[in-house]
Specification:
Elements: E1 2-4, E2 11-13, E3 17-19, E4 27-31, H1 32-43, H2 47-73, H3 75-90, E5 108-112, E6 121-125, H4 126-137
Amino acid sequence: MKKLCLKCGKRKHVTEFHKDKLQKDGLFYYCKKCKRKLDNARNALPEFKKKKKAWHETHREQSSNAVGKWSRNNRLKKNAHNKVYAALKSGELIKLDYCEICFCEGELQAHHEDYNKPLKVVWLCSECHGKIHRKEAS
């Protein structure tokens, strides 16, 4: 019985594939030879790729810390966002199909005039939502 290796494109006997319970046929999709090459290549990453990976991990952590800081500094806003999300999920709140200012259709965002009333929202496109916030900031 033969199987096609998705890496090298050759049909090989099934004994040339590692077992993999997650696959329908119970075999890994690369042959043992291609899998070994792939593993060796991953283990021999050039130094700049290792540095790049470390850089991404550091910045991911910094980004995560920034989100956490925002959440701590904006508890009322975060609470309102969470309540809107839960209400949408439960069906208590229905998202409109169009922006309430320009009537365009597409991806909409919930805008709060008052964060103390978390379920009283206006559905806006990102452009109109941004315009409102820029006017409020001015």
